[in-house]
Amino acid sequence: MHPELEQLLVLQDRQQKIKQIQTEIQTLPLQRNHLESQLAGSVAGVEALKQKARQLEVERKKLELDVGTRTETISRLKTQQYQTRKNDEFQAIGHEIDRYENEIRKLEDQELELMIEADKFKGEIGAAEEKARATKESVSRQLNDLEAKSKALESQQQELAKEREALASQIDDDLLNRFERLFNSKGDAAVVAIEHGVCTGCHMKVTTATASRVRAGKEIVSCENCGRILYEG
Ligand SMILES: [Zn+2]
Predict the structure, then answer these.
(1) Which residue in 35, 119, 202, 212 has its CB near the most CB atoms, within 10 A?
(2) How far does the centroid of ligand 1 lie from the alpha carbon of residue 205, in Å?
(3) What tens digit of pLDDT does each residue of 45-90 get?
(4) What's the CA-to-centroid distance between 156 and ligand 1, angstroms?
(5) Domains of the chain listed by start with CATH number
(6) 75 C-alpha vs ligand 1 centroid, how far in Å?
(7) What is the pTM of this model?
(8) Please, which residues bridge with residue 231 across strands?
(9) Ligand 1 centroid vs 192 CA: distance in angstroms?
């Protein structure tokens, strides 16, 4: 193989690795966001349950207050009833007391229902908090892993860039420019093998003349279809 081709192949290998690492680095913020929203979601879930429990407690307190005012009214009515000498007034007050007592029973039933619901919520909140703690632990572990991965990738990238720099400095400027233009425009590879007379870059058959020039290995030969630099595979 043409000695400069060998250098180009090593250079290409490093550039491909650098590109791969860069792509991987680009996905890191997305992974990080995903983890952070997972965490925020579990915290928000617990908070929503707590908010609902607070709401139930407010409703329950209101019912308690309503019971309290009716109890006071009843005791005031009982005093009035005790003081009256008129039979019909005594009875009318008695009916009113019954009405208030009925209301109190209904309010207390509602209060009991709310308390049962609140108890159920307490259990749900406990379970959600437990789950949120586990999520937090797992997310922070995964975030640490991502951080470590990010650092490792950065340093790999730096190493490869240094290596690439050293290799590039040994290659003829014109050839290097040609290689770079090809590498950037093709996106995958600038130097590709011929296999069974076919360019593995564009998968087209090359002419026999091109194939034999490549085989001779005396010059840098390009695929007449895609322009990539060819080597004998
Ligand atoms: Zn080609």
Answers:
(1) 35
(2) 8
(3) 999 999 999 999 999 999 999 999 999 999 999 999 999 999 999 9
(4) 31
(5) 19-170 (1.10.287.1490), 172-233 (no CATH)
(6) 101
(7) 0.74
(8) 193
(9) 8
